[in-house]
């Protein structure tokens, strides 16, 4: 038990160091990191709690993602969190994700199919991650953007709260108000 707490604390410290100052605007929070997509997804998954009994997590990754197989490999190499086994399934873009998905990474989807999937998943405890700020506007939870400085992501706090998922408060505290960013 003590080792598990130590590992969780070290992972949180790593995530805090990796995530550069964040920016909050309305219900969105923007964080920048030099890490790649797979590492960002791994960190977010590690600090998200699903309701109900502890069980394995299934992450569904769109085959439309440029780095889908790299993300899959990286997630499968990650150590189990709190005794939860992690499985990764590659899914076809524009097809409704399987009901067994606990998290879905959208990339390469048409706007219409993505919006429909987000509406259907919005009432369920499914972590949704995708590319671009419009993903959050459409109801996605975590919106990734790759810049010259690394990967940035926004958090749609409204979508997270409606889902019933809990994201560790230390991750959310990395943000600072949007006015600080503009000054």
Description:
With 183 residues, the chain is α/β, with parallel strands linked by helices. The protein has one domain (2-182): Rossmann fold, CATH 3.40.50. Helices cover 38% and strands 27% of the residues. The protein has eight helices and eleven strands. The strands form two sheets. It has a nine-stranded mixed sheet with strand order 5-4-6-7-8-9-2-1-11. Strands 3-10 form a two-stranded antiparallel ribbon. A hairpin with a 2-residue loop joins strand 8 and strand 9 (150-156). Helix 2 (37-46) crosses helix 3 (68-77). Mean pLDDT is 76; it is low at 1-34 and 175-183.
User: Please, how many domains?
Assistant: 1
CATH architecture: 3-Layer(aba) Sandwich
Gyration radius from CA atoms, angstroms = 15 Å
Helix content: 25-40%
What is the H-and-E element order?
HEEHEEHEEHEHEEHEHEH
Strand order of the largest sheet: 5-4-6-7-8-9-2-1-11
- What structural category do the secondary elements indicate? alpha/beta
Q: If you consult CATH, what is the topology?
A: Rossmann fold
The average pLDDT is: 76
Helix run count: 8
For this structure, what is the CATH class?
Alpha Beta
List keywords for this structure.
183 residues, alpha/beta, Rossmann fold, 9-stranded mixed beta sheet, two-stranded antiparallel ribbon, globular, disordered C terminus
């Amino acid at each position: 038990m003590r080792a598990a707490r130590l590992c969780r604390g070290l992972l949180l410290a790593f995530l805090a160091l990796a995530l550069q100052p964040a920016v909050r605007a309305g219900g969105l929070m923007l964080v920048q990191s030099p890490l790649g997509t797979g590492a960002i997804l791994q960190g977010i998954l590690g600090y998200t709690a699903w309701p109900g009994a502890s069980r394995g997590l299934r992450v569904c990754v769109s085959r439309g993602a440029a780095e889908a197989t790299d993300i899959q490999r990286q997630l499968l190499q990650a150590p189990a969190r709190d005794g939860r086994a992690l499985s990764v399934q590659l899914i076809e873009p524009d097809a409704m994700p399987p009901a067994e998905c606990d998290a879905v990474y959208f990339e390469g989807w048409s706007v219409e199919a993505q919006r429909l999937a987000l509406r259907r998943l919005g009432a369920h405890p499914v972590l949704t991650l995708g590319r671009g700020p419009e993903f959050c506007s459409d109801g996605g939870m975590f919106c990734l953007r790759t810049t010259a400085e690394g990967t940035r992501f926004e958090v749609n706090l409204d979508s997270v709260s409606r889902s019933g998922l809990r994201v560790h408060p230390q991750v959310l505290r990395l943000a600072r108000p949007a006015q600080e960013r503009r000054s």
